């Protein structure tokens, strides 16, 4: 299978680097970071994707939060 | 993504942008935008939220929902035959509101709409930061959010009315609605459930009728729409959010909804069913004895909170209510005693 290296930019400004199996779903990465799927939108390498999307190469995920104050 | 099988739009087979639980499939960028705008448009038409000739004030906080709403309604100005402008409130929260207002000013300029800002300082004589100091001194008997919410609604209504608005549109989405519903359930606040519908009744003097065009769209959808449309809002969380019950309720609902796609729709359906049973929306509006603004009680909540936070104002309220003390209902009396005590 091999591994992919995913850099995750969190909404509050933090950055996490995650190593996972090639073909990992975006949802698994987000859940692993303690994020609730209904509360975020994820863009992989700049493209917004559904969380069921799989990752096959080293990528960057930008996470946007529904909580933006009011 | 490279190499793997891509997720496809259920309409055109294009690359998927978002999973829509109640459609049971994915939508691409183009069909998601089409679906989103159609849903909001049909909400406006079906519930007659906006009519030709209206002067629509959009309550804008600078967050994604209100900016998306301002952008949509300003684009539909001609189609709807209405005028559109923004109203905003500056609570005076350092390190938060200035960033949101900045995002708002940029978008308003792009859209060519006016935005009128009413400040806490100007309308109430103090900022929220100052109010929170007093709340803390008095043991946080009331949360910053409950006080702020009352003041914001009061100022929004006044600014909208002062600029001739016939409707006040807010960016409240399906998530907001079900969160408030659950909070009202937890507090056994049936009057609140009855009141929080898609629109308030019009014809109450002094109160600009409120409408919620995003009533049927989820927060995740408004965020996706805002991102796709290039509407950027800085991620700055209100520093007082930790005090809000809302915070916990939101997480609980979202965790449930992440596992059960229909959860929020079921909550909304249950809310509407309950509103049907208890008779939604009806409340008699009169004028507040102290400030003269519309109120369902003899003394409005804004004046009660102002009295609680500001000793001078408390004196004014006490003077006004003293001759009418016997006419006040038990609840108002007990609140007043609490508010006015040293």
Could you explain the architecture of this structure?
The complex is a heterodimer of chains A (70) and B (342). With 70 residues, chain A is mainly beta. Chain A has a single domain (3-65), classed as Roll (Ubiquitin-like (UB roll)). Chain A has one helix at 26-32; strands spanning 3-9, 15-21, 24-25, 40-44, 47-49, 54-55, 59-65. In chain A, the strands form two sheets. A five-stranded mixed β-sheet of chain A has the order 2-1-7-4-5, with no helix packed on it. Chain A starts with a strand and ends in a 5-residue tail after the last strand. The mean pLDDT of chain A is 93. By secondary structure, chain B is of the alpha/beta class. Chain B has helices at residues 29-46, 64-75, 77-80, 97-111, 120-124, 128-137, 144-162, 174-186, 190-195, 219-228, 245-259, 263-278, 301-309, 311-321, 330-340; strands at 16-20, 25-28, 55-59, 83-90, 115-119, 167-169, 210-211, 286-287, 294-295. The model of chain B has no long low-confidence stretch (mean pLDDT 89). Chain B folds into two domains: 29-278, HUPs (Rossmann fold), CATH 3.40.50.620; 286-340, no CATH class. Chain B has a five-stranded parallel β-sheet. A two-stranded antiparallel sheet of chain B has the order 1-2. In chain B, helix 13 (301-309) packs parallel to helix 15.
Summed up:
The complex is a heterodimer of chains A (70) and B (342). With 70 residues, chain A is mainly β. Chain A has one helix at 26-32, and strands at 3-9, 15-21, 24-25, 40-44, 47-49, 54-55, 59-65.
Features:
heterodimer, A: 70 residues, Ubiquitin-like (UB roll), five-stranded mixed beta sheet, 10% helix, B: 342 residues, Rossmann fold, five-stranded parallel beta sheet, two-stranded antiparallel ribbon, globular
Strands ordered across the widest β-sheet of chain A: 2-1-7-4-5
Helix content bin of chain A: 10-25%
Q: Compute the gyration radius of chain A: what is it?
A: 11 Å
Mind summarizing the main beta sheet of chain A? Answer: 5 strands, mixed
Number of helices of chain A: 1
Terminal-residue CA separation of chain A: 44 Å
How many domains of chain B? The number is 2
CATH homologous superfamily caption of the largest domain in chain B: HUPs
- For the residues shown, what is the average pLDDT of chain A? 93
Unreliable residue stretches of chain B: none
What is the helix/strand order of chain B?
A: EEHEHHEHEHHHEHHEHHHEEHHH
Number of strands of chain A: 7
């Amino acid at each position: 299978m091999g591994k992919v290296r995913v850099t995750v930019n969190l909404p509050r400004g933090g950055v996490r680097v995650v190593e996972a199996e090639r073909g990992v779903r975006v949802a698994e990465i987000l859940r692993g970071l303690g994020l609730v799927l209904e509360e975020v939108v994820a863009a992989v390498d700049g493209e917004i994707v559904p969380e069921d999307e799989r990752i096959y190469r080293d990528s960057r995920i930008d996470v946007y939060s529904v909580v933006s104050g009011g | 993504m490279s190499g793997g099988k891509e997720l496809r739009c259920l309409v055109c087979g294009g690359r998927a942008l978002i999973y829509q639980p109640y459609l049971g499939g994915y939508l691409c960028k183009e069909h998601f935008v089409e679906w989103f705008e159609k849903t909001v448009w049909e909400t406006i038409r079906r519930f007659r939220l906006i009519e030709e000739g209206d002067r629509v004030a959009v309550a804008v906080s600078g967050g994604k929902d209100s900016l998306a709403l301002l952008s949509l309604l300003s684009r539909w100005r001609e189609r709807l035959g209405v005028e559109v402008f923004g109203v905003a409130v500056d609570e005076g929260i350092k390190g938060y509101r200035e960033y949101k207002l900045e995002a708002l000013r940029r978008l308003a300029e792009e859209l060519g709409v006016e935005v009128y800002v009413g400040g806490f300082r100007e309308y109430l004589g103090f900022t929220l930061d100052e109010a929170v100091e007093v709340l803390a001194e008095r043991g946080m008997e009331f949360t910053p959010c409950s006080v702020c919410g009352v003041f914001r609604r009061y100022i929004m209504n006044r600014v909208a009315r002062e600029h001739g608005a016939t409707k006040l549109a807010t960016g409240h989405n399906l998530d907001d609605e079900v969160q408030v519903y659950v909070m009202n359930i937890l507090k056994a606040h049936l009057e609140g459930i009855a009141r929080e519908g898609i629109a308030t009744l019009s014809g109450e003097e002094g109160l600009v009728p409120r409408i919620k065009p995003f009533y049927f769209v989820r927060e995740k959808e408004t965020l996706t729409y805002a991102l796709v449309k290039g509407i950027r809002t800085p991620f700055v969380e209100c520093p007082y959010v930790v005090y809000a019950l809302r915070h916990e309720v939101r997480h609980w609902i979202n965790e449930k909804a992440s596992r059960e796609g229909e959860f929020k729709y079921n909550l909304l359906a249950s809310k509407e069913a309950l509103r049907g049973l208890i008779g939604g929306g009806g409340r008699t509006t009169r004028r507040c004895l102290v400030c003269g603004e519309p109120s369902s009680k003899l003394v409005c909540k804004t004046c009660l909170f102002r009295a609680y936070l500001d000793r001078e104002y408390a004196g004014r309220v006490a003077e006004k209510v003293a001759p009418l003390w016997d006419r006040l209902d038990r609840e108002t009396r007990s609140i007043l005693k609490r508010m006015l005590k040293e």
